[in-house]
Amino acid sequence: MVAAQEVLHLYRMFLREGRKFNSYNIREYILRRARMGFHENKASPNADELVQQAREDLKMVQRQSLVYSLYGRGTKSILELTRSKDHGAAEDASQLA
Amino acid sequence: MRSLWQALKLLPAVQQQSASSLLAPAASGTPAAAAVLQQARGIFTAPPHDASSSSSSPQAIQQQQLREQSTAAQPLFARGRTDAENQAIVKKGIKLLGTPMYLDMQATTPLDPRVVDAMLPFMTGQFGNPHSRTHYYGWESEEAMETARGEVAKLIGADAKEIIFTSGATESNNLAIKGVAQFYREKKKHIITTQTEHKCVLDSCRWLQQRGFDVTYLPVQKDGLVDLDLLKSAIRPDTALVSVMTVNNEIGVIQPIKEIGDICRSRNVFFHTDAAQAVGKIPLNVHDAKVDLMSISGHKLYGPKGIGAIYLRRRPRVRVEPLMSGGGQERGIRSGTVPAMLAVGLGEAARVSQKEMAADTAHIIQLEKRLREGLMGQLTGVELNGPNNLQQRYPGNLNLSFAYVEGESLIMGLKCSHMVVLTLCRYGMGRFTTVEEVDRAIELTVNHVNKLRQMSPLWEMVQEGIDIKTIQWSQH
Hints:
Chain A has 97 residues and is mainly alpha-helical. In chain A, 71% of the residues lie in helices and 0% in strands. In chain A, 26% of the residues are buried. Among the domains of chain B are: 4-75, no CATH class; 114-351, Type I PLP-dependent aspartate aminotransferase-like (Major domain) (Aspartate Aminotransferase, domain 2). At the A-B interface, helix 2, helix 3, helix 4 and helix 5 of A face strand 2, strand 3, helix 7 and helix 15 of B.
């Protein structure tokens, strides 16, 4: 049987590694998908397989987080830049030159 | 005073000058020092927003001029953010402060990180030519390519031997239409397609018309669906091929592929479908749908650009005359070295799509509902282009018309607000679209539509209660 500790650890690692992605869309996808995947399969019978799959997916996330940090876009998404501020500021700030 | 000098030393202009000329107090008048000090003053008293909103005092005008001279200075201190984050990108007359949101998944999709992960080994160490039969590099590339082929086949319910890699769905479409027509041209001279097909299909049909083939372009109904009775009546004894796309890229309508397949099978006509927008998004099976040829595009299912595939049925065998012959690769149907890295990417994209299809569909349905209800709730005069029923329309493609608003103006306005990029008021959502993006899209669209409507004389007239139909438009 798979230890609940390990599953929890894997989940936390997914969230932690996912947050490191510098691409807004990919980061949000990983967080959403990990949350969904771990919640859905909480009581799944083939937990061993899923955990093995999760371990491999986690390694993939770690590798790709590095690749995207090297080659991804330098600038942040407009959604991140204007999240906490008034949305109107983003519109006023971008002008036709 | 000390800190001011230290700060001044950081200015590039100061570093160029000798230290001695700056030891004199600020009031002394060497022009260079004065300019430097002015610049420093400008920086330290810069208001926290853009030049356009500064007052008209002489100091402010000077600051504005200085700011326009030195783009590095203004954003650096403007909001207390770092240099990298504040560099505005200026492209085609639009200044962008951040990466725009991407809502055009029908044009292309980003690579899934799993696909990038699968492709990187073949871009670095495993660079062999899959057609090299004599050494290890070739063997490993070939094995990867065949695995990818198998994954693509599994996604559509086919056999791996029936999948040929091409450079994309455009090439697959050309190959299907021109290839089948040319091969069977002795006895069959007629092709049927629809008016809403992709440009490459329509161009291929026109090319065939110029070489003596007859082509029937079936009209579609108001919601984009093909009329099956019209199709039945259009089939002639010398019809070689019927080509109808599975999911339309403009309005997202899902054609009744099973019914069309039944009709074609009963009348002994080949059925080709351009499934570029459908593969990996809706469940497809070439045997259930009785499809004989299918075009697959890599970059529409979160795979790489430059690769696609064509499915050619083997039982009963579909023969095509190759476009790229002479070389013999891919069973002589498509010569040229198969790009192993791209094929592996396509295979991985297919595998991931199959695994994630249910989750993606649920997510996209939720996003589409939110977007549609948000826009229709906050605006009047919004019309959905395409069938309302989600069984007949792919939810990731939401095409709306806004009354009294010109499409081009709306797109231009949204571009400046960092929203990419609907063409023709089409919102393309996919696996990586977030709820936040949808909410922002609703907000921006509502703002811009209202803004444009305020400027529209037609809208004014409608608000006053004038019936548009009673207006006599004068001819110029």
